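Input set for joint prediction.
Command: fold jointly, output tokens.
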Amino acid sequence: MTKNPPSSTAIHPLARFAAELRWQDIPEPVQRRAEDLWVDWFGSVLAGCRARPVASITRFARSQGPSEGPSEVIGHAGASTSPMMAALANAAASHVAEQDDVHNGSVFHPAAVVFPPALAVAQSIGASGEELMAACVAGYEVGIRVGEFLGRSHYKIFHTTATAGTLAAAAAVGRLLELSPEQMQHAFGSAGTQSAGLWEFLRTAADSKQLHTAHAAAAGLMAAYLARDDFTGAQDIFTGPQGLAAGMSRDSDPTRLTDGLGTRWATAETSFKWHASCRHTHPAADALLQVMHEHNLKLQDIAHITCHVHQGAIDVLGPVVSPATVHQSKFSMGTVLALAARFGHAGLTEFDDEYLAPETVALRGKVSMVLDPEVDGAYPRRWLGRVTVQTADGRQLTGRVDEPKGDPGNTLTRGELTAKALRLAAYGGAVSPADAEAAVQRLWQVAQWPRVEALL
Amino acid sequence: MTKNPPSSTAIHPLARFAAELRWQDIPEPVQRRAEDLWVDWFGSVLAGCRARPVASITRFARSQGPSEGPSEVIGHAGASTSPMMAALANAAASHVAEQDDVHNGSVFHPAAVVFPPALAVAQSIGASGEELMAACVAGYEVGIRVGEFLGRSHYKIFHTTATAGTLAAAAAVGRLLELSPEQMQHAFGSAGTQSAGLWEFLRTAADSKQLHTAHAAAAGLMAAYLARDDFTGAQDIFTGPQGLAAGMSRDSDPTRLTDGLGTRWATAETSFKWHASCRHTHPAADALLQVMHEHNLKLQDIAHITCHVHQGAIDVLGPVVSPATVHQSKFSMGTVLALAARFGHAGLTEFDDEYLAPETVALRGKVSMVLDPEVDGAYPRRWLGRVTVQTADGRQLTGRVDEPKGDPGNTLTRGELTAKALRLAAYGGAVSPADAEAAVQRLWQVAQWPRVEALL
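tokens >
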């Protein structure tokens, strides 16, 4: 069963698509959504770039790369280094605030693993804004489809953003480096064979999530550079008998890899995060806000909240009963609902200041999760929010949302996105409000940039 | 089930062992064997450092690191860079010639993922030769046990040298950085969550093997540096419900992680490679040489050779029927046996010059593999060689070896190791014979070095 190296007839359609995607082929609404995602991502980086685990990775990256280079280390006073090391640092920063985007169907956070490596390489090679953004759309389309392909069994053990993230990063960087379809396929092979990232760290609130995005960005970037140098990878890293699905999934679906390529734009299906917590908590939080608003409930009216959730929420959030850190509290359904109930929004500041407040802890103890067949059946395509509130006076009230705020059908306006990015920048404290505002205004114009320069 | 961050009572014995191992605690025969492995590794690096895939990784590493640094890029005319980038390049070089060492029970190649990151860091921090070698023994002991723990089901899909390799590299580098046991455990968590490497690349003779060792070395090194900076990882990356075994093994055995720690020295169980091919081919090759010698067989006497092998050999070698590249031919049982039969030894030069020669191809076609219960039952602890040769005149002859040449009970002398290293260096052509010889003589004295300097 030995085959010769891939010929042009054996190129996977996903590799060909990623290698050939041009900005002008992307429908205008998708272009605009890509710009929305880009600005939204920038806020997350600025929010996270000084967090302790990110600072560790950034220190390491800067110590291993050149002390100056073509690629910006965002939020570190003009620091720069090589593309790989900048990608490592910026990707670590992108995910820590838990405010970056998410694609529901794949349970994949594309921005954190796509924009950092693409930006670093675009700055290094002098790409235009259009070239950068087309490459990022390629990264989104590939990463999301790989996440969908790997399926729910994969996500039970593996952090899909980390694993599919290597492919997403390779696609984006590969497009910028103008890989041929055959080279792109090799880049996929090299990226996929570096796919890694286990959920085990959540159990002790460890820092691995930041390492996961950093690793995916750097590994995918390396895969693309190597492919440009004609370094070869597996021909069929996805479905081969010793490939990704064989090793890391029990319910993989190869049809998802090419689902609607060029007509269905997964980029535009990506959701923005409104609450600063794990996305699995958002539907229930919004359903709670809905029922509280409808019945004008106060905190003291709430005796118990039952969240009717999908299995993935139980898998990820279930172990977190008594959060020991701010980061872990973002995976505590009880904490998120308590903050939402108390403040109308579970934002970064609310988490930092209030996650262990007595009122939060008291309400947290009144929240439980149960598996709901309807919610579970709709997941991961739709993230339905269903809660039952038992009131102190004995009523049973139901809260429902079918699209949590930030989902494509309930999306954020450009005004809301700008405000969110500036809130995140202010939270991070790495740049002045004026500098953040000027940068965000420039970022909205990315598609007009003749050349990608430093963002700050 | 939320736990607090690891306390001192929850340190895994393997992390504690790696953090506390000192050179003087290692029995003298094990110290000497470690020196043997060190010299043997150096030959493999020099043999591989100019190979095409290695050159790609080295170019990339040098482009992403500083143009000068504390760590040597071996075989590139005095080039140096940062520890991570040197580890990336040197680890890529270590495995390509298929002459580096192997531990049978774990089917793990320790040298390629232990010495490169440890050397790069030792050069960077000015460690002594003893500190370097104690760290490398820690890397061997950890990596081998992790490989044994992950088991045979893991190896069917995953390249254990790549996956367990991240842990081995983290242990070695972590020891050099003097991590506390708790920090070492965090380093294990960060290394394990970067564990990756799929066999799929073999099917098309792709270059991924070199990426695998490079990735393991760099990822493990990063994990150790981050842990020194108090970056945390999963407390139980091995056996946790979303850890390595849960994601990547169906027959993991946790008792192997601590098997004989401090009394059983897995380092000394490591075998040297005599033939320049996949280790799975060696038992049969030696058994063939044995039966040919015993019965004074010539090539034309051989009508058919049946190799009685373990399942792992069929899994790895089975797909390679008609090798398209030199590298792939090292995974072709037929090619290896043909070269051994023709030249008495399947070395690098024999592969390069003869793997597609008509005589080789003709004999290759006469070789088959069958699963043998006795051989399979002994594997992976013992790699038994069993062949049946059908002769042209109708005889059935049996060849047997119980320890292929290079195994601990049939090991190489220091003279053979020196000669092998110099042969490999000459093959690689990166350094002059005089420089190689001087370096090898110095390398034998590593335990006396007050400070690890450039090897060349």
